[in-house]
Input
Amino acid sequence: MSETAPRPTLEAVAARAGVSRATVSRVVNGGDGVREPLVERVRRAVEELGYVPNQAARSLVTRRHDAIAVVVAEPETRVFADPFFALQLRGISKELTAHDNQLVLLLTEGRDDHARVGRYLAGGHVDGALVFSLHLDDPLPGLIQRAGIPTVFGGRPGWRDGTGEEVVYVDSDNRGGARDAVRHLVGLGRSRVAHITGALDQTSAVDRLEGFRDVVGDVDARLVVEGDFTPAGGERAMRELLDRCPDVDAVFAANDLTASGALRVLREHGRRVPDDVAVIGFDDMLPIAEQTDPPLTTIRQDIEEMGRLMARLLLKGSGDAMSGVVLPTTLVRRASA
Amino acid sequence: MSETAPRPTLEAVAARAGVSRATVSRVVNGGDGVREPLVERVRRAVEELGYVPNQAARSLVTRRHDAIAVVVAEPETRVFADPFFALQLRGISKELTAHDNQLVLLLTEGRDDHARVGRYLAGGHVDGALVFSLHLDDPLPGLIQRAGIPTVFGGRPGWRDGTGEEVVYVDSDNRGGARDAVRHLVGLGRSRVAHITGALDQTSAVDRLEGFRDVVGDVDARLVVEGDFTPAGGERAMRELLDRCPDVDAVFAANDLTASGALRVLREHGRRVPDDVAVIGFDDMLPIAEQTDPPLTTIRQDIEEMGRLMARLLLKGSGDAMSGVVLPTTLVRRASA
DNA sequence: TTGAAAGCGCTAACAG
DNA sequence: CTGTTAGCGCTTTCAA
Output
């Protein structure tokens, strides 16, 4: 990679404006305590020279970087098969941008990467980290805690650390949303409500299952079948469901992707939705929920806002000692239930 | 955000190992020209102190950052509705990681952001940039060229700069792939082959249309209808197509998403695929192509590899003065054609 | 209010 | 081979 052209320094600006480096520095950083005429002169010099502060030099003394890391463990392609992650990223990006922070993206796959990420985080390159720990047994969170930098998790982490330290996270009200979904189904007069779960090594899946149980009470075990948040998983689960309980009249799918798979199988088996079987999803992933046949009734979570909030908490220092923020969900009614 | 704990410096390591800072520096940076026993002593000291180099200090003198920016203009949600971008990102990330580079993600929306990105890039925070310029009239590329840092574009940029400067980009062989697709359809004995285009303000869509024309020769204008790379666009276009030419017997859709929409409409109209109408897509986006009914025959492009290659070119300095690299595509045969 | 001076932690000549 | 030295460009006391 070729060298970038030499850029003007604070020194150069100072010379041009006929002031000291210190004064230029003050102006560049807000200009408090500098008399107006000087401010003006410095501003002009900055303009003329096209001066941009050298971030490395600044960080060296301030020990701040105005950058945060976003860590995503993505051992599976699933992360990429739905727009979930991208939406959070967008929310994060917006918030960071608004606060002049940069986003350093750390994608990990496998063990070696964990060490690398740990080192990077501990290396003081960034002011904080936003991490998405999808799985219950993920070693990443531990590593990051050890790195000792401010961290906010996306989704409720699956572990409880014995240390009693606060774990800051942002999550959707998965359990409450699931309850709403199932209540809706029950309100429709359905009596044999099934649940296709998500991947149960993720807290979101566990929480949604809990919500389902909250409403259904003692569940006929045959009405709960494990999925994995994918359409294929949804298909498989739906087949099994139909096989076990041909009289099932409603399905709460752990997410929209799962629901789309389930819908396909129902159609294939000649069941009419919602007449024979009502189906409800979770997420309200527009490109999916609006495109299914019939359009999907689902539980909406504001994913972009989750990202935004994570960034906001991290930047604020979350000194409020709050540990988790849970965002509400809403029922979006379309045609499938 | 709270301060990170004070970390050991080179000085500290030197003291502990009983050598000079320079020696420690040498060891940390590869250890060439340092006698083994010393190397060992230094290594141990580093280990014991948990020393991690201060990147800011290092950058200050080396003027390198071991970081590159990935710039994505995403005025529309479309970027997030398909996994395309995420896959490229993954390829990029892998390659950068292998070369100990960090990935700074710059998401832009709207004009103000452009200025911000321009400033950042010009500000010498990163060693280079990877840019995804989706649209023909995007002002971003210009801005970036002006920033004067090494840049590789994802997808053939829509403009030709008069400067005669080399523009480095990585793209799929959209035109060739399109030709393969249409030839396949023709080889199936289809005689009324239609094309649903992508958003024609993107070079990929234009190139695929060209490829279509290459094979079909003088096209019946009614057989080309504009889409926008979305399922909804595909539906709309397919309806129009059926309306205009009820006897259409094959469709080349600009991408898999478009094809999925077209399939839906065909089914709705009682056309059998591929018996009545053969359908072929572009991308081979697995979660889509494998889930459609019937599974989609399509043109595969190796998206992750594109990302990887972009990163490789940037890091290599692409001093080979080559301007564009075009990756081959392959036909993936499933059931729809 | 402004300026002078002292580093932040590191690398890179240059000596030895 | 190893150590000494001089900065990289900036912020931040401390005086003036």
